[in-house]
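If it is no trouble, might I ask you for a protein's amino acid sequence along with its backbone structure tokens?
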Amino acid sequence: MYVSNPYLYEEICKSKELDELTPNAVKMLDLMIKNIIKKKRYNDPSIADDIAQTAWVDIIMYWRNFDEHKYKNAFAYYSSMIMMGMAKGWNKLYPKGLKPSDTISLDSNIHSI
């Protein structure tokens, strides 16, 4: 499924009038998160879930900052916000210098530090 910029822009404008995300805006933003997260591979699905949740937190906090009078490309704005939120989530899980292979896996018998 594809999210079109004009439709997303329209839903964000409606959402701003209502001061809450419309159900259609939520569906489109969720689809964007799912499509962006698919571009990476994660050893553990819970990592992808955590990173997606961090992106949602950013959307919830900052979605109103989109200036519909200045910009028409809501798709690019929210794609960037999602990717930055995912990067923030990754950096929380794996602070600078720590790699996923350096972590302890609780789901298997193999533990490494």
